[in-house]
Design a protein that fits this description.
heterodimer; A: about 110 residues; mainly beta; six-stranded mixed beta sheet; B: about 120 residues; seven-stranded mixed beta sheet; four-stranded antiparallel beta sheet; 13 strands; about 0% helix; about 55% strand
Amino acid sequence: EDKVVQSPLSLVVHEGDTVTLNCSYEVTNFRSLLWYKQEKKAPTFLFMLTSSGIEKKSGRLSSILDKKELFSILNITATQTGDSAVYLCATMNRDDKIIFGKGTRLHILP
Amino acid sequence: EAQVTQNPRYLITVTGKKLTVTCSQNMNHEYMSWYRQDPGLGLRQIYYSMNVEVTDKGDVPEGYKVSRKEKRNFPLILESPSPNQTSLYFCASSLWFSGRMGEQYFGPGTRLTVT
């Protein structure tokens, strides 16, 4: 059975810290990995990764995929209170089916 | 404004009373999908559609139906709702190009309570 596992489940850090969120997967016919941020409402898209070793960056956020070891990390540098959210990892397989992990709840203390 | 709309946003209903949650997008997206989100279980895909008249089951399709008669609309139908379908439902859409999905846009969510 396909699965996506995120760790840690929750994390509390101070403003200015750097955090690394983990996502491992076991997915048949893997196509791509996606990261989302969810605050109090609908998830918003962060990154889509399809190739190993190529870092994607957006401001203080970056992500990379390792297709050999079947994991991805999401890094957030110089965290701000506005980064507090649930971060969701998802995979899409070649049948276009999407599976989400349970998310990492990140809380940034001022 | 590019968006995914869902209606209703909130619904309280009784067991067995058929209901439809509508989803519409104005971005000409090929891929549309329904999810439910439950505490401790995360987001789970119910059904998805690659284009008009093409639908596929996600992880939790039991008790739900969908249709894709027009590209912009993807309604979710609960023929006989039960209390275990009480959940927060999201519709999402994305472009599909060169065999790859683009950024997925989510609707605002529909909170459904079945008593």
